[in-house]
User: What shape does this take?
Amino acid sequence: MEKLFIGGQWQEPRQGGRLEVINPATEEPFATVAAATSLDVEAAVEAAVSAQANWGGSRGSERAVYLRAIAQAIRTHQDELARLEVQDNGKPLPEAAWDVGDAAGCFEFYAGLAEDLDARQGEAVALPDERFSTKIYHEPVGPSGLIIPWNYPLLMAAWKVAPALAAGCTCVLKPSELTPMTALRLAQICSDIELPAGVMNVLTGLGADTGAPMAAHPQLRKVAFTGSVPTGRSVMLAGAQEIKVVSLELGGKSPFLVFDDADIEAAVEWIMFGIFWNQGQVCSATSRLLVQQNLAGPLLERLCQEAARIPIGPGLEPGVKLGPLVSASQRLRVEGYVSRALVQGARLLTGGQRARELGYFYQPTVLANLSDESEAWCEEIFGPVLAVSTFSSEAEGVARANQSPFGLAAAVMSSDLERCQRVARQLEAGIVWINCSQPTFTEAPWGGVKHSGVGRELGRWGLSNYLEVKQVTTYQSRDPWGWYLGH
Ligand code: NAD
Assistant: This one.
C-alpha cells in the first residue's frame, strides 16, 4: 500500500515521498505508505471534480446501492480490518472489531438516508401568496475534503465518507499519518465494488503537506475536519479564504458529574469506561470527574482499586482492556502533563507510570488536588488520565462543569432522574449522557459547542453537512408586477 488512490487508480506519489507506519505495541515499523504533497492533492481534487457531475446528479437510490456494497465488503473483511486497526492504532481487538462493525453500520444507515433524499426532493413550501409556488431541493455541496485523526481511523473515515457519498459529494479523504492503513483498505474496497472512478480518493501524508493544501484548495467546496483545536482553527482560516463550508469536530475536556445518591459500583464502571476506553484517546472522554463531597471518599477508593486492575497489553492479546498509546510522542505528551501536575502539587491516586518496557503503554492514572486553573484540569490530555475534584451543591457542580473553553460532551449520574434532566439542560455541551458515558449511536447527532467545534455529524444532521438547500420558486400569474405592487 505504498500508493495513493486517485481517480480510481493506485498512483505513485508525484514527489516520491514515503512514511513509515509504526506498531505502537512493538515500536516497530510494519508498513510504508506514500507521502502525498500538493501535486497529489491537485490530482485528487481534479479527479473528484471530474466525477462530481455524474455522482451528484445520480439518484440517492443509486448511490445507496454502492453504500450498501461498501458496508457488505467491510463486514466480509471485518476481522482483517480489525487486526489492521490494532496494528496501526494499538487498541484492543474487541474494540477494533466493534469499530469496524459500526463503520459498516454507518454506511448502511446513510444508504437509507440517500434513498429518503429522493422522496424529499421537490417538497413544497406553503407561501402566503398563492400565485407563487416554491419547491425545495437538496443538492450536494460538491467535492469535499475529509481530514481525520488517528483515534478511530476507520470509524472516523466512515462518519465522513458515508454521508458525503450519500449526499452526492465526491471526496478526497486524508487519514492521519499515524494510522493510514484502514483508509487505504477502504479505498481498495471502493475499487473492488466498482465505485465510479474519482468519487472517492485517498491521500496518505503529513498534515502540513497534504491536509493544509486540501483545506486551502478552492475546488474542494466543503472541508470536514476532525482533530485538534489548533489544526481545526487553521482549517477554518484556510476555508474562510474561499468561503468554504467547514465543519469541525475538535477536542474536549468533558465533565462527569456524580451526585452523592449515585450507585457507587455503577459510577465506578462508567467513570472508568469514560476515561480509559481507547486509552483515553477519545475526544468525548469524560476526563474531568466532579464528585459530590459526601461520596468522594468511598467512590475514589473503589475507582482506584479497579483502575489498577485493568489488564494492560498488546491489543491482540486476549483479555486486554488497555492497549498502548498511539505513538511515542503521544506518550511523552501524557507524561508531560502528569509530571507537571505533580510538580504543581497534584496528588497521584493511582498510575502515573509507563506500564511496560516495550510499546507505548501508560498506566490508568487518577490525579486529585488540582486547581480549577491548572493545565491538567483545563486542557485535553488525550490519554488515560482522570482529573478529579469535588463539589457540594448542584449549582456549584454545574458552574464548574461549564467552566471550560470546550463543550463536546458531559455526563451526569444520580438516582434522581429529574435532577439529571435539569442538569443536562444546563450543561454547555453538544452531547450529555445520563447515568452512562460514551455510548454513541449513528442515528443521533454528534458534535460540540464552544472550542469543541462547529456543526454536527451522524444522523440526519450528518447528511445536512454535505447538502445545500435550493428553493425553486415559480410565479403562476401573467401580471409582471403583481407581487410587488400588491405589497
Ligand atoms: P491533529 O489536529 O493533529 O490531526 C488531525 C488531522 O489533521 C490529521 O490527519 C493530520 O494529519 C491533519 N493535519 C495536521 N495539520 C494540518 C493542517 N495544517 N491542515 C490540515 N490538516 C492537518 O489531531 P490528532 O492528533 O490526529 O487527533 C487528536 C485530536 O482530535 C484531539 O484533540 C481529539 O479531541 C480530536 N478528536 C475529536 C473528535 C470529535 O469528534 N470531536 C474525534 C476524534 C478526535
Notes: The radius of gyration is 24 Å.
